[in-house]
Amino acid sequence: MTSINDIMVDITPQVLLKAYACGIFPMAESAEDNALYWIEPERRGILPLDNIHVSKRLSRTIRQQRFEVRIDHDFQAVIDGCAESHPGRHSTWINQRIRFLYGELFSLGHCHTIEVWRDGALLGGLYGVRIAGAFFGESMFSRERDASKVALVYLAARLKYGGFALLDTQFLTDHLVRFGAIEVPRDKFQRLLDEALLGGGDFSRLSAGCSGDSVLQLVSQTSNTGCSTA
After folding, report:
1. In angstroms, what CA-CA distances link 202 with 1, 91, 133?
2. Which of 40, 152, 196, 200 would disulfide-bridge 165, Cβ 3.0–4.6 Å?
3. Which residues lie across from 126 on neighbouring strands?
């Protein structure tokens, strides 16, 4: 990973969108540090939308619809969950400036959440940034087994059905590798990003009430048909 040296001073949501379109994104050293830094990894994680792996066990969980999946319902609760400490991670890079900036992007319709609920409790989810045919995954969390995994599968289905071309994961983790995520060099990522920005993506095309069976069908097939719209 490489970090561009300039610390962001006068950043706005519009500047942030331009940065994503150039292949860079912000991070903080910690929640207590209010400074933000531009990050441009030498190798970028992506999850190819035409090659998503879903385990049999997770497929059963999705088909049984043990969770309720909501879209863009409670952004603040999701970012709070992503900022939580957990075993193996006692600090977070989500500081107050991150919270404010992505909250602004959410208000503008460029930041989205996939939320996993049961009995009125938020159990997991993720958030990310949308520009044209590209979706930039930012962070995810889970308070119960499989909750973040369900969110990721529902995200992939929504992006495929909406005609998106790129799902950026920024970095590669063991968790993402199990779903088929790969690393690509910076120059290849930029080519993929440029192509995605020339196209379009409709994040709201997929019905919020799409069944688990339909979501799995969408993720596993090469076309983008298979679930009714709202």
Report:
1. 31, 34, 8
2. 196
3. 114, 140
In a domain, 28, yes or no: no
What tens digit of pLDDT does each residue of 100-125 get?
999 999 999 999 999 999 999 999 99
Q: Please, are residues 28 and 8 in contact by the beta-carbon 8 Å criterion?
A: no
Domains of the chain: total: 1
Q: Which residue stretches of the chain are H helix?
A: 13-21, 56-64, 75-83, 96-108, 147-161, 174-177, 186-198, 212-220
Helical segments of 22-146, H only: 56-64, 75-83, 96-108
CATH number at residue 62: 3.40.630.70
Q: In the predicted model, is pLDDT for residue 33 greater than 60?
A: yes
- Per the DSSP assignment, residues forming a β-bridge with 25 are 39
- Report yes or no: 164 and 196 within 8 Å, Cβ to Cβ: yes
Please tell me the predicted confidence (pLDDT) of residue 2. 42
pLDDT of residue 186: 96
Q: What is the pTM of this model?
A: 0.90
